[in-house]
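Notes taken during the Thursday session

The instructor put the following on the board and asked us to keep it in front of us for the whole hour. The protein is STAS domain-containing protein. We were told not to look anything up and to reason only from what is written here. First, the residues (107 in total):
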Amino acid sequence: MASALISTRRAPDGSVLVEVRGDVDIQSSTRLRDILVDTATRVMPAKVTVDLLHVTFIDSTGIGALAAGHNAAQRRGLGFAVRNATGMVAAQLRQTGLHDAVAGGNG
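Then, after some discussion, the predicted structure tokens were revealed:
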């Protein structure tokens, strides 16, 4: 499986968008976790949004990375949302119960 490409950018409203492409698995989940937790704890934007539109696969380590980002944001009173999860990725989020906690739009 190809490792995920992860990029971040600050939106005009001060929130941070984390865009993920490819497979979120054991090879890329630690990096995603680090980025999400670091964004919540050091950057501390009003909201962190993770766009999964181009994610083709996510395993339990990827779900764990999203949960860690969500928890870090929640501890600091920041917004956290996942958007554009489709297909298998959306199903994994629903199956683990994370979908309802992080649903931020379109999936």
